[in-house]
Amino acid sequence: MIPARFDYLRAGSLEEACQALASDEDAKVLAGGQSLLPLLRLRLSYPTTLVDIGRLPGLSGVEDRGDHVHIGAMTTHDEVMRSPVVTAACPLVAMATATVADPAVRHRGTFGGSLAHGDPAGDLPAVVLALDGVFVARSARGERDIPAAEFFVDYLESSLRPGEILAGVRIPKLGEGWGYHYEKFHRTAQAWAIVGVAAAVKRSNGAIQEARVGLTNMGSTPLRARAVEAALRGVEVGEQVRPACEAAAEGTSPPADLHAQPDYRRHLAKVLTYRAIGKAAGAP
To answer: Of 63, 202, 185, 200, whose CA–CA distance to 123 is shortest?
Structure first.
C-alpha cells in the first residue's frame, strides 16, 4: 500500500527536531525507519510530519563509561552486535541484537529506534528491561533519565513526552559471575518473536544467587518475570530450576494472532525460560 500524505523535515539540529515534535503532536521521528516505514505502508500510522534525525551528530556510537555502557540511539544494530565494548560488558545486548530481523535490517535499523518504537514483540525492549537500563531523553528543556521499568507504557507507546527524542541508552555493567542468554522462538529467521526470553543469572557455589528474566511478546509491553526471579533465588542449578520456571507466565497477557494463541504463548514462556536460565547458568 501507499502511505498517507505527510510532510517531511530533515532536522539540521537536535533543537530543531525537538521543536518540530513539540509543535505537532502527530509528528513522528524517522531514524532507521525499519519499524516505522512498514506501519506507514500498511496505513497503521498516520503522522502529519516525519522528522528525520538520521544525519544529526552525537546520537550514535558506543562508549564505556565506567559502571555502564552508553549506546547512542542512532547506533545501528550491526554496530551494536559487533562492538567489542558491548560484547565484553553487556553480552546479553549483543546476543539479542544479533537475532533482530536480518542483516539488511540490522544495517539500517537503529538501537534507539527499535526501543522507542515500543513493540513488545521486538527483541531489545525485554533485554534492556531485564538489565535495568536507563533511557536518556533530550528536549529543549534538557536531559531526562527514564528507568526501563517506566519507559514502556502500552503497545507502541512509551513515556517520551512531546518534544523529547531518545538520545541514548545506559546499560549497567553487572560485573563478574553473571551468565547470559537470549532464547527466541520464531517462525523464520527474520520474523518477530512469537515469544522470547532474556535471562541473566549470577551463580555462587553452584546455586543461583540472583536471576533476571525479561519476556518478549507476552503482553502489551515487555515484562519482567518477577515470580521466576524470586523462585530461582538460592536454587541449585539443575532440574530444580524447572519448577521455578513454571511461574514464567504469571501476570502476563499474551496476545492472540495468526501465529499463536495465548495458551500456546504461556507454554512457550515456561519452556523458553527454562532453556534460557539453564544456558545462562552454564548448565550442561
So the answer is: 185
Residues 206 and 236: their CA atoms lie apart, in Å, by 6
Strand-strand pairing, 7-10 and 49-52: parallel
Q: DSSP readout, 82-112? A: H-HHHHHH-HHHHHHHTTSS-HHHHHH-BHH
- Strands (E) across the chain are located at 7-10, 28-30, 49-52, 62-64, 68-72, 134-139, 142-147, 152-154, 157-158, 165-172, 178-185, 195-204, 207-216, 223-224
Amino acid identity for residue 66 in this structure: G
- Give the CA distances from residue 210 to residues 1, 86, 199, 231, in Å, rounded to whole numbers and listed in that order: 48, 22, 11, 10
Same domain, yes or no: 155 and 195: no
Range of the domain at 193: 178-281
Sign, CA torsion 120/104/68/231: positive
pLDDT digits (tens, 9 = 90+) for 163-209: 999 999 999 999 999 999 999 999 887 789 999 999 999 999 989 99
pLDDT digits (tens, 9 = 90+) for 231-248: 999 999 988 899 999 999
Question: Which among 82, 83, 60, 80 has a CA at the least distance from the CA of 14?
Answer: 60
Q: Is 6 exposed, middle or buried (0-12, 13-18, 19+ CB in 10 A)?
A: middle
Domain count, the chain: 3
* Partner residues linked to 171 by β-bridges: 69
